[in-house]
Amino acid sequence: MSTIKIKLVKSPIGKVPKHRKTIKALGFKKLNQVIEKNDTPQIRGMLKQVDYMIEVVE
């Protein structure tokens, strides 16, 4: 299965509570952290919801 690297570029402080929970569920703990996840439709949906706070690193 392919993987995708994601970087948190904006802070979730003051954002919609549902989006803050999505960031936490993805596994982010701090700003500018890069994590690697399996490229599944579920993860893609989570990324689409919070696309204004993250950056996909290729």
Automatic annotation (TrEMBL):
This is Large ribosomal subunit protein uL30. Residues 4-54 form the Large ribosomal subunit protein uL30-like ferredoxin-like fold domain. CDD domains: Ribosomal_L30 (cd01658). The keyword NADP does not apply. Belongs to the universal ribosomal protein uL30 family. InterPro entries: Ribo_uL30_ferredoxin-like_sf (IPR036919), Ribosomal_uL30_bac-type (IPR005996), Ribosomal_uL30_ferredoxin-like (IPR016082). GO terms for cellular component: cytosolic large ribosomal subunit. The gene is rpmD. Keywords: Ribonucleoprotein, Ribosomal protein.
